[in-house]
Design brief:
about 450 residues, alpha/beta, Rossmann fold, four-stranded antiparallel β-sheet, about 50% helix, elongated
Length: about 450
């Protein structure tokens, strides 16, 4: 089976756990709960998120897992058996994976479970939980990192439903609200800062260290603001050439870019998975001398950071990281708040609808099994009674059929109604317990693959 994006979706690994006995979790840290110094240590390169998710389900009490890692957050979205000790286990796992003390992560983490976990995921996909509300990159990152989890067989049916619904909700938010059009991206905020430092960008040169999507967006914003020249460097020189060609820039080999730094007034870093800082104070002494102390503006979009914060102590040098840029974007918050409120309403309503659908699908196998069991008893007893009678006309048979069906329906109404209502509560624990009781009382047989018939 494959989803709409063509990714292979494998069936849920039962591990002896029925789907109605599962819980959805989000455990993570983001720009609101922890400083950039910790986020950069916790950051997981995108090429590794699938492997981390795979290790998570191999070592933790999880049936499914998707790991999300961006410049703003690191989160694990997981599915576990009810009652599993997930929070501390996930915290310890992430801490060990990134060589950090578990207590440090525990101090800054947040935990969402059940309905709140679903709503949080919808907010993230819709860019309502982003550093800059409405920024477009997050949805693409979620799709890619979910795809990597699926490729590693770390995600299956439950998270497939969650993530595909989150993508649909994000599209609805962008279509029905002005959140995206009112958004101030990190890249545009960087240009705003550059214009505050340099009154006129028309005679300035920008250098892009790293040639990813964010660099490309920043370059276009800089060119739109009037920057005269753009120098592009990247570990892959072919990619630097490709990006530079797109807007008439100059590509330079990565190992040679320090020789060109003295030409740059604005330096933007977005190199990923760096082993250390790309630039530090020692790299700039000769550069500043060659520039005769003309100001340099460094924009650090990397996670981990590309530029040593100590650069900011040098005279005529200004360094801003992604947290600094978010404060610039906050200046435009009032323009986005009204649209964001509409978007939040959509997310809340969609999360409620999804939760009801998920809850109903969890109890449907029990309801179907119970109805089937009682109807089988009804039909068997009716046929036995009819066989004992000498003659039964069609009209009498229809009356007896309707009467016995009515009896079964009235018997079924209280437990099925109660079971559905309990399934919609915050955790669904009472519904799971009641379903278990019904299974034992009536010796019901269902499988974890039972699905609702629709309607």
């Amino acid at each position: 089976m494959s989803n709409r994006d063509g990714a292979i979706v494998r069936p849920l690994r039962a591990r002896g756990v029925r789907e109605r006995d599962l819980e959805i979790w989000v455990i993570g840290l983001n720009h609101r709960t922890c400083p950039i110094e910790l986020r950069e240590k916790l950051a997981i390169p995108e090429v590794e998120v699938g492997d981390v998710a795979q290790r998570a389900i191999g070592h933790l009490p999880l049936n499914e897992a998707v790991v999300l890692s961006t410049c703003n957050r690191v989160e694990l979205v997981g599915v576990s058996a009810r009652g599993a000790d997930v929070v501390e286990a996930v915290t310890a796992f992430l801490a060990e994976d990134r060589s950090l003390p578990p207590a440090t992560l525990a101090e800054h983490r947040y935990v969402h479970r059940g309905r709140q976990a679903v709503q949080h995921l919808f907010r993230v996909a819709s860019s309502l939980d982003s550093m800059v509300v409405g920024e477009p990159q997050i949805l693409g990152q979620l799709k890619e990192q979910y795809r990597r989890a699926v490729e590693k067989s770390a995600s299956a049916r439950v998270l497939q439903r969650c993530f595909e619904s989150s993508f649909r909700v994000a599209k609805r938010v962008r279509t029905e609200t002005g959140v995206a059009t009112k958004a101030v991206s990190v890249s545009s905020a960087a240009v705003d800062l550059a214009q505050r430092i340099f009154d006129d960008l028309g005679d300035k040169t920008a250098m892009l260290i790293g040639a990813g999507k964010m660099s490309e967006l920043a370059a276009r914003h800089l060119l739109g603001a009037g920057v005269a020249n753009v120098i592009v460097t990247n570990r892959s020189f072919d990619r630097a050439v490709q990006l530079a060609r797109g807007f008439g820039g100059t590509p330079v080999p990565f190992d040679q870019f320090p020789h060109y730094l003295h030409l740059a007034d604005v330096v933007l870093g977005s190199v990923t998975a760096t082993a250390g800082y790309v630039l530090g104070p020692s790299h700039l002494h000769e550069v500043l001398r060659a520039r005769r102390r003309r100001p340099m503006f460094f924009i650090d979009l990397g996670m981990p950071r590309n530029f040593d914060p100590a650069i900011n102590d040098l005279q005529s040098v200004y360094v801003y990281n992604i947290d600094d840029l978010s404060r610039v974007a906050d200046d435009h918050r009032a323009e986005r708040e009204k649209e964001a409120e509409r978007a939040e309403e959509i997310v809340r309503a969609e999360a409620e609808t999804f939760w009801r659908m998920l809850a109903a699908s969890d109890v449907t196998p029990t309801i179907v099994a119970l109805r089937g069991k009682l109807d089988a008893i009804r039909r068997a007893e009716l046929e036995r009674a009819l066989a004992s009678l000498a003659t039964v006309g069609p009209d009498e048979r229809r009356v007896l059929e309707a009467m016995t069906q009515s009896i079964v329906n009235k018997i079924l109404h209280p437990p099925t109604t109660t079971l559905k209502q309990l399934a919609f509560d915050e955790e669904g624990r009472d519904a799971a317990e009641m379903a278990e009781v019904l299974h034992r009382l009536f010796a019901l047989e269902t499988t974890s693959d039972d699905e609702p018939d629709g309607g």
